[in-house]
Amino acid sequence: MIYEFNGYIPVVHESSFVHPQAVVTGNVIIGKNVYVGPGAAIRGDWGEIIIEDNCNVQENCTIHMFPGTTVLLKEMVHIGHGAIIHGATIGRNVMVGMNAVVMDRVEVGDESIVGALCFLKADEKIPPRSVVVGNPSKIVKQVSDEMVAWKTDGTQIYMQLPADCHTMLKPCEPLREVPENRKKQVASYQTWNERKS
User: Can you list the domains of the chain with their CATH numbers?
Assistant: First the structure.
């Protein structure tokens, strides 16, 4: 669902995919190859939201702000399921974990990883390549080259997803039985713990 608000119509590049059950409102600019999952709410009613190329905003995420604020997701940002970004700037190639909350005027430096369920309070400044976890948040270590490569590989899967959704996603009626010839899906990406072992 795409809504105009107060004269602002969202801008979505044709290569991006916004799921029909996501809601994008008002002053929102979405770049190339962006994936927005079902249940996401990207609400540019009081301020501007810029989502640069190759980002993904996964299922049930919320992006919003206080009046007059710009929210910026720089290129290749990965916003995990259920995360909330409120009035923050998220640096290039950052991963924000599932159900994390990033508050007003937070700046997350490039190539950082924000852990699942992490809470970043207003006005925090996270240096580039930081691993941030906990509630309240705490920087626990620096992101290694290996971690950046792992995160980038995961985001590249999401960079392909908009094109796949445009060609393969379609409404259907459910089957009532599992077909005998149902194909197996390929394990094309590993969790961090699997990759390390």
Answer: 2-142 (2.160.10.10)
